[in-house]
């Protein structure tokens, strides 16, 4: 699940825009974060139901530091350190990393763009995620659009261009995306990410392409994992509408698709890695209602392969209905219900054709 915490924090005025850092006057250090927790009941057919605390029902819980220093001549040095955590237990989201969500430093100029070095989100993930309407835990856009899921790559350099008449371009390259730390570059998994965004008034349009160059591809892999995403979001005032399409091929570029066949990576099912394709569609609508909004989102992922037993892989669908209520500019109450077919919380495509339902409610506080 990729959650729009950066956009929410920027909208609240807590941090600069996340994908267009221009050089800022003066020097500043920002401490920011989100604490989100609630309760939920989840049922998976054939496995039973589970109830308990829900971490990050609306947005990931995290804290971070972001700073900038004016270097003169329009230049600025920027950095970001960001870490996710589980408020139900107080543990880090990834015990092996202090700053699992981000750790980068860079230079920015209003005329030349923003250059960053370190652990980051990819350009495709950053731009694609901006199309999401309803970010409910495990049932948001990332459930079917895995290239917009909540993932980061290490050892990455990226550049975001200045905005020109609403347009912005981005490109990124990870020399060792999953931290294999081999001496020769071609012995590590590398990633390429490019994207184009247009944002002017009520219209947002994005197009992205990503490719993963695996250091040690699984047996019978037929090509490099890659993903294309195209989408439009428009704010009509009375409703905000998002429509998107994605094509994913040869496995998931974010290494975030589970490992149901024991391939040793998060590339997804073996049939997908061995030349399979997934076409995904998304439609989302947000309607203002008092101090909050009603959120409706539906997505479908259509595979083109067969399972090892000869059965055709079925389409996975995820539909959600929810409501957010703003108690203040920083605190939001929420409730949602979601239903997914041929989908479990561990695997986007379930060979057992399981169905998953979840009902949850909670509170999200930004600081």
Uncertain stretches of 5 or more adjacent residues: 1-5, 9-25
Structural class: mainly beta
Helix content bin: under 10%
Main sheet strand line-up: 1-3-4-6-7-8-9-10-11-12-13-14-15-16-17-18
The largest pleated sheet is described as: 16 strands, antiparallel, barrel
Average pLDDT number:
89
Q: What is the first-to-last residue Cα distance?
A: 21 Å
Q: How many separate helices?
A: 3
Percent in strands: over 45%
* C-alpha-based Rg, rounded: 20 Å
Number of separate strands: 18
Q: Per the principal axes of the C-alpha atoms, what is the gross shape?
A: globular
Order of helices and strands: HEEEEEEEHEEEEEEHEEEEE
Description:
- The chain has 367 residues and is mainly beta.
- The protein has 3 helices and 18 strands.
- The chain has helices at residues 5-11, 123-129, 270-273; strands at 27-44, 48-55, 62-72, 75-86, 91-92, 102-109, 113-120, 153-160, 167-174, 190-200, 203-213, 226-235, 240-249, 277-289, 292-303, 316-326, 331-341, 355-366.
- It has a 16-stranded antiparallel beta barrel.
- Strand 6 and strand 7 (113-120) form a beta hairpin.
- The longest helix is centred in the N-terminal third of the chain and has 7 residues, at 5-11.
Labels describing this entry:
mainly beta; 18 strands; 367 residues; 16-stranded antiparallel beta barrel; globular; 5% helix
Describe how the helices and strands are arranged.
Elements: H1 5-11, E1 27-44, E2 48-55, E3 62-72, E4 75-86, E5 91-92, E6 102-109, E7 113-120, H2 123-129, E8 153-160, E9 167-174, E10 190-200, E11 203-213, E12 226-235, E13 240-249, H3 270-273, E14 277-289, E15 292-303, E16 316-326, E17 331-341, E18 355-366
Antiparallel strand pairs: 1-2, 1-3, 1-18, 3-4, 4-5, 4-6, 6-7, 7-8, 8-9, 9-10, 10-11, 11-12, 12-13, 13-14, 14-15, 15-16, 16-17, 17-18
């Amino acid at each position: 699940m990729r959650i729009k915490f950066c956009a929410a924090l920027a909208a609240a005025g807590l941090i600069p825009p996340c994908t267009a850092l221009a050089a800022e006057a003066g020097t500043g250090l920002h401490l920011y974060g989100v604490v989100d927790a609630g309760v939920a009941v989840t049922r998976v057919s054939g496995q039973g139901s589970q109830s308990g605390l829900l971490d990050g029902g609306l947005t990931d819980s995290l804290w971070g530091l972001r700073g900038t220093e004016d270097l003169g001549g329009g230049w600025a040095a920027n950095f970001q350190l960001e870490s996710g955590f589980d408020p139900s237990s107080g543990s880090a989201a990834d015990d092996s990393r202090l700053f699992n969500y981000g750790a980068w430093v860079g230079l920015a100029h209003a005329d030349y763009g923003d250059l960053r070095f370190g652990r980051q989100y990819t350009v495709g993930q950053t731009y694609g995620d901006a199309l999401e309407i309803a970010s409910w835990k495990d049932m948001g856009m990332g459930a079917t659009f895995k290239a917009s899921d909540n993932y980061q790559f290490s050892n990455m350099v990226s550049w975001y261009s200045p905005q020109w008449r609403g347009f912005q371009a981005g490109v990124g390259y990870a020399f060792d995306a999953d931290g294999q730390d081999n001496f020769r570059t071609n012995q590590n998994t590398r990633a390429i990410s490019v994207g184009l965004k247009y944002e002017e008034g009520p219209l947002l349009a994005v197009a992205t392409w990503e490719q993963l160059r695996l250091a040690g591809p699984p047996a019978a892999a037929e090509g490099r994992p890659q993903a294309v995403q195209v989408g439009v979001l428009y704010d009509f005032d009375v409703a905000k509408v998002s429509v998107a399409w994605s094509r994913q091929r040869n496995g998931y570029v974010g290494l975030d698709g589970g490992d149901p066949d024991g391939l040793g990576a998060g590339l997804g099912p073996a049939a997908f890695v061995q030349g399979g394709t997934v076409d995904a569609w998304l439609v989302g609508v947000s309607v203002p209602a008092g101090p909050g909004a009603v959120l409706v989102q539906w997505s479908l992922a259509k595979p083109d392969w067969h399972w090892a037993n000869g059965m055709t892989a079925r389409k996975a669908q995820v539909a959600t209905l929810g409501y957010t209520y703003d108690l203040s500019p920083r605190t939001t109450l929420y409730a949602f219900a979601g239903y997914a077919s041929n989908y479990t919380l561990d695997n986007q495509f379930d060979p057992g054709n399981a169905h998953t339902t979840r009902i949850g409610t909670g509170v999200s506080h930004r600081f």
